[in-house]
Specification:
- This protein is mainly α and 96 residues long.
- The protein has one domain (14-88).
- It has 3 helices and no strands.
- It has helices at 16-26, 36-52, 58-88.
- Helix 1 (16-26) crosses helix 3 (58-88) and helix 2 (36-52) packs antiparallel against helix 3 (58-88).
- It is elongated.
- The chain starts with 15 loop residues before the first helix and ends in an 8-residue tail after the last helix.
- The mean pLDDT is 78.
Length: 96
């Protein structure tokens, strides 16, 4: 049985911010909760990178999807938190 060759991700083709996120994901360093905007830009940048690939690099697709998914989950969580906060403010009642 042949030994599997190590896979390498070409991070030079990514923006520095996205490359840093992919590296953090690979090394398991994305544990703290990012802000809404950090999550949004993670989602935006990873999806833009995926859409711009003329020939998909299969070794890069999975990390980009994972970064985008974490961004989506972060946005969704933060929107839910803000929505709950706004509903607690009773904005339908007139302010005296």
């Amino acid at each position: 049985m042949q030994k599997e060759q190590p896979r390498f991700i070409d991070l030079d083709s990514l923006s520095p911010e996205l490359a840093q996120q992919v590296l953090a994901l690979v090394h398991g360093e994305l544990s703290s909760a990012p802000s809404y905007m950090e999550s949004y830009f993670s989602l935006k940048n990873s999806s833009a990178e995926l859409l711009s690939m003329s020939e998909p690099d299969i070794d890069l697709v999975v990390p980009l999807v994972e970064v985008g998914l974490k961004g989506f989950q972060g946005c969704k969580k933060r929107i839910k938190q803000v929505s709950g906060y706004l509903s607690e403010l009773n904005l339908d009642e007139p302010v005296v």
